[in-house]
Each structure stands twice: as C-alpha cells, then as structure tokens.
Amino acid sequence: MIIIRINGLTHVVTADPTMPLLWFLRDTLGLTGTKYGCGIGVCGACTVHVDGVAARSCATAVGGLHGASVTTIEGLSGALLHPVQQAWLEEDVVQCGYCQPGQVMAAAALLARTPHPTDAEIDRALSGNICRCGTYTRIRAAVKRGAQVLRAQD
Amino acid sequence: MPDRRDFLKHGSAGAAGLIVGVWLRDCSATRPAEAAQSAFAPNAFVRISSDDAVTVVVNRSEMGQGVHTALAMLVAEELDCDWGAIRVEAAPVTPDYNDPITGEYLTAGSTSIVSSWTPFRKAGATARLMLLQAAAKRWHVELRALRTERGRVYHDASGQSVSFGALAPAAAREPIPVDVPLKDPGDFTMIGTDRSRLEGRDKVTGAARFSIDVVLPGMLTAVVARPPVAGGTVKSADLQRALATPGVVRVKRVSSGVAVLARDFWSARRGRDALDIRWDHGPNETLSTRALRATYRKLADTAGLIAEDVGDVDRSLSTGSRTLEAVYEVPFLAHAPMEPLNAVARVKEDECEIWAGTEYQTMDQRVAAKLTGLRPDQVRIHTTMLGGAFGRRRTANSDFVAEAVEAAMGERVPVKTIWTREDDIQGGHYRPMFVHKVRAAIDETGLPTAWHQRLVGESVGEGRCSSR
C-alpha cells in the first residue's frame, strides 16, 4: 500500500505504481495546477515539492513516494498568496502562464533553502524551467523580490 | 457612426443588469433580423450586473499577449468604471463576434487592437450614456449636470451619487443612444497606463483553466498514434494488446491514425504504446528536408510569380558600383507551445461542444460541422486560456480540434485528446522552410540602387506541402 500526503491530506494510492505523480495529481485528484509539458522531466512545468524539495512530477512514479509529503501549486499558499506568488504579480511576470506554476514552485523551493540567492544561484535553480514566452528577466526580478519579503518575515 | 440598430440592450427582469452590444461592423446593413429582436443579445460586449461587476465579453484568444486585459481597458476607458470591477469572458463563436477585417473569429496578425479600438470603446461609451440617462431620470436633473468616475454617477450640485450596479436595471430600460461621442485621447486615464494582467492571479495560483485542464463528468482521455511520415495511413493494426491495457476503454480509427481512449492520460499513453500498427508511409516516404532544400535552392534560380516589379532591375544591377548576392535559408521550426496540443469534444445528435485553446474558432467550427454533419451554429466552442500558440493552434485543417471531434464521435461522454510532447515536435505543422535569394546593387555611398529577391517556400494558408 502506498500512502502519500498531498497538500496536507493523506491519500492511499491504488493507482498503477508506475503512474507518474503528475497524472495522479491531475487525473486522479483533479489538481490541474501542475502542468504537463514534456513528460521526461526537462521542461519544469510539472514541478512540485516532495518533502520540501523541487521535483519533476512527470518523472516521479507514485510507487516510490510511500511516506512522502507532496506540495502542489494548489497547496503552496493559504488564504494569502505565498510571497513568491505575490512577487510574481508585482513584477507582472506571466504571459501565457502555462509554465508559471512550475516556475513558482521551483522558486519557492530555492528560497526555502537559499534566502539570499545570487543571480547565478537563481539561474541554476530555475534553468530547468522553460518559459516559451521568455519571461526570464522578470522571473529573476520576482525571485529577488520574493526573497526580500521572505527574509523580512523571518 | 452606427445607426440606432447598431446597439442592443438587454432588460429582461430575470437578470437584473445592463448589456450593451455594439456591432463590430460599423455598417449594420447585414445584421440579421432575429438577432435584433433577441432579448438576450449574444453580441453584447458589456454586461453590468447589480453587484457592480462589469463583464467584458472578448472575442480574442488570450495566449499570453495580454489581449483580455487590453480589450477590457478599451471598455473601461469610456465607461469610467472601477478597474477592480472588471471581469473578462470569452465570447461564444457566432458571426456577431467575427473580426470586422477578416470576417472570421480568429486571433492573428496583430489585428486585435486595430480591429477593436473603436467598437470596444463605443460599447463602453454607450453603456455609460445609458447609465447617465437613468440617473438623470432618477434625480430629475439634466444629463449635463452629471459626471461619472470609478463606477459611480455623481450629481455634484446635490451631492448625490449612485453606483453603476444600482443603476443597471433602470439603464437597461433606457433608449439606446446614437452617435455616442468618444473621449478625446488627451482625456484618457486608462489607455496608455500600466495595468496588471487581469488573469495574472489565476496564473500564479494554478487556477487558470487551459483546455488541458478541462474536466467533465465521465470524460475519457485519448492519445492518438499517428503515422511516422506525414500523409501516411494505417495499413493494418493489431489492437488486442492496447485493448487489454488497464484503463483503456476503446481503440478506434480516426483520420489521423488510431485513437486510444482511456480513463486517464497515463492509461491511454500505455495503451498507445501497446498498439501494433503497420503504416503505409504514402507518397512522402522519401521526402526529406535535405531534398526539399535542394529543390528550393534550384527553384530560387528560376522565375516565379511576380509580387512586385518596379523599374528595370537588370539594368540597375549592371550599373551599380558594387553588386551583392546572398542566399538566406530559414529552416522548418516546431512552434512547441508549452501546453501540448489538446482539445475536448462532446458530440451529440444535435450539438457538438468543443473546449479548446484555439486561435481560429471559425475554422474549428467549420471543420467540426463537416465531420459531424451538423450546421456550424450547432457547434459550440468554449475558448479557454492558451498555453502559448505561435500559430500552431491555427491551421488550415484545424487538425488538433478535428481529431478531438472524431475521437468523441460515437461516444456518449466527452473526450479529451492530448498530444504528447513527442507528438507535437514530430507532428508539424511546422513554420515552413524558406529559401530567399537576393541580388542587390549599391552605389558609392552604400545605398541600394537595385534589389532583386526570389523566395521559395510553401503557403502557410494552404498548410504544409505534405499535409494529409
């Protein structure tokens, strides 16, 4: 039996254990904020947190997640937006928006561990998250803005 | 200016509010009579409800270019509403919402603002004037004693004010004004200002709905096996292993190949992997980029159709101080939008419903009508957000929408077709390859004195040379 905590709720997984977490989230649980982009873990649109670390849900089989705690874009914030999401709005980052849940999750995971990221650290942490609209310069600005807010909260 | 018949209003008691429609075609001569009598005008662009919400109905697809926000700004400018009260809704696909320049419902060619500039402002200005008329009656004052600001009508002399929402039911009963004046650009307070994208919050919280996110009761997901060569067909197919795959519900032929319908994407994908298909590669079996490029290069040395011919280019070329010759090649490119191609369709006896992130609703409707045998007006299209498009979601055969309709035909439930990323990269329609050959002469100062250019490529409108 596979038991996974997703956004704070416990789920007993009866699906095919080889099913990627992405499709369990989207098709079984209806959590469609996590996006399918490539299916092989190279575009970052499907990024979620597994035990606090950014992970590609399209390349993570549910069978290997017993006991893990997963956070999706739907579970990142409560009533108030997460500071990273707020920064994303203030910098008006998004265009088509399809990659952005993955970008936001990758940025939130970075800032949880690296409160003072350099440009190089931001680029390294987010280089696997592709944006076809090319919003990268605004993403970098928003990560820095989000970092400031998070540091002020500590 | 449009005449009186150019404006429609809605004043039914059931929905307390004001709807103002402005025909996109400034000339109203072709307006259908039944639409003019319809209480619920389907061509309405502005709806003000009694809770002050202002809904702008937009006939353009939002694919990241910001058109929902931009068109809402045009209405808000003339309406003087509170920007925070603005909502945007995708317009249904009816002729009333067609682009006045192309006569079709599509988003292309950077035409959205130029087409919408006057009609959307008129929609806002007309609604504002009807609200003013209603306020003038309510307070027994003259129209010119009133002003509007951020969603309220003010009568400064008496110190009274009232919200648009509170006036909406009365405004809906007002006569429809004609020749509504528009603001002088010098008085703009909205157009030209920075506004955050209206759907921005939904896009950072994962709440925004792309067509791949559409979930309907009983819906099946389909993944289609397509020929490895464009224009190929199925020679024979063994479906047994695919049918035995857990979660797979049905396997069937569609024009583009073999569709595997399953309870979820993962099962459909595994089912497709289990298909055993022998393909007839068709007439394009030996076609290659290399061979096409060689042909294009050869053609660039021969005469073609003349697009423009001014002066005597051969003489000018021979008299310039220096002659240059260059060949430019642009390769085939996959558009590769971030959201893989997908669409949802539900086909019933008398209706076909489609949910799609599409750039070309008119063609989708036409193609779906042809496939199902329904009339175009029986094909209802819900336009969702588009996870990028770049022209790929607008083709001459509406390929990805047509495939969803075919997959859904004969099913009692809706079907969502999803292309894998590999399908997207391999499956065209690519941006076409072109070869340009340029000969030019320049004078002593470096300015051109002659220009001769030949270009070789396929028509974007007709589709790729090898399309089925």
Protein described:
The complex is a heterodimer of chains A (154) and B (468). Chain A is an alpha+beta fold and 154 residues long. Chain A is built from 6 helices and 5 strands, in the order ββαβββααααα. Chain A has helices at residues 21-28, 73-76, 83-90, 100-113, 119-126, 136-153; strands at 2-6, 9-13, 47-50, 53-56, 69-71. In chain A, strands 2-1-5-3-4 form a 5-stranded mixed beta sheet. The longest helix of chain A is centred in the last third of the chain and has 18 residues, at 136-153. Chain A is globular. The longest helix of chain B has 28 residues, at 112-139. The relative contact order of chain B is 0.12. The two termini of chain B are 46 Å apart. Chain B has a 7-stranded mixed beta sheet, sandwiched between helices. Chain B has a 5-stranded mixed beta sheet with strand order 1-2-3-4-5. A 3-stranded antiparallel beta sheet of chain B has the order 6-7-8. By secondary structure, chain B is an alpha+beta fold. Chains A and B meet through helix 1, helix 3 and helix 4 of A and helix 5 and helix 7 of B.
Q: Can you list the strand order of the major beta sheet of chain B?
A: 11-12-9-18-15-16-17
Instruction: Estimate the mean pLDDT confidence of chain A.
Output: 96
| Overall mean pLDDT of chain B | 89
- Order of strands in the sheet with the most strands of chain A? 2-1-5-3-4
The level of helicity of chain A is: 25-40%
Give the H and E element order of chain A.
EEHEEEHHHHH
Q: Report the major sheet of chain B.
A: 7 strands, mixed
Count of DSSP H/I helices of chain A = 6
Rg for CA atoms of chain B: 27 Å
Could you say which overall geometry of chain A the principal axes of the C-alpha atoms support?
Answer: globular
Helix proportion of chain B: 25-40%
Q: How many H/I helices of chain B?
A: 12
Class from helix and strand fractions of chain A: alpha+beta
